Amino acid sequence: MHIFKQIVCLHALLLIVALGLQSCASSESARVSDEEHIEFVKSEDVSDIEFRPAEIVGGQIAFYNELRYPDRSKERGSQGRVLLSYTVSELGILERVEVEESSGDRALDRAAVRAFEQMRFLPAVHNGERVPIDLLYPVPFLLN
Length: 144
What we know:
The chain is of the alpha+beta class. It has helices at 2-23, 34-43, 59-66, 71-76, 106-117, and strands spanning 51-52, 55-56, 80-88, 94-101, 121-122, 124-126, 129-131, 133-141. A 3-stranded antiparallel β-sheet has the order 1-6-7, with no helix packed on it. Strands 4-3-8 form a 3-stranded antiparallel β-sheet, with helices on one face. The chain has a two-stranded antiparallel ribbon with strand order 2-5. It is elongated, with a radius of gyration of 17 Å.
C-alpha cells in the first residue's frame, strides 16, 4: 500500500508540474496546439486508473483566469449562474459546449462559453481506458 501512495503522489506531482507549465501559456501564440495536447494525453499511462472524470488542465484557476465578466453586464449589475453542458473526447478534446441553464444575461452566457472553449482537458478514464464523457460545469458571475 505504501508504494501505491508513493506512485499516486509522484503521478500527482508530475501532473501538477505539467499542468502548471501548460496553464502558464497565456497568449494565443503560446497555447499548446491540439496535436501537442493529444500527444501529451496519449503519453499518460492510465492503465492503473479505475475512474477519473475529465479534468480541466490547470483546474478551475485556469478557467477563471480566462473568464471575463462582460463590462455591460457589470454596468447593468447582472449576476447569475451559467450551467454549461459539455463533452470531452477520449483524447481530451472539447467536442461540445452548450448553455444548459442560462444566467438570464446572454452576455454572461457567451462569456462562460468563450472561456470554456479555451480550456484543455485530461480525458475521463474508466477501468484503465480513456473514454468520452458528458459533464456539467456551473459558472457563477457575482459582483462584489
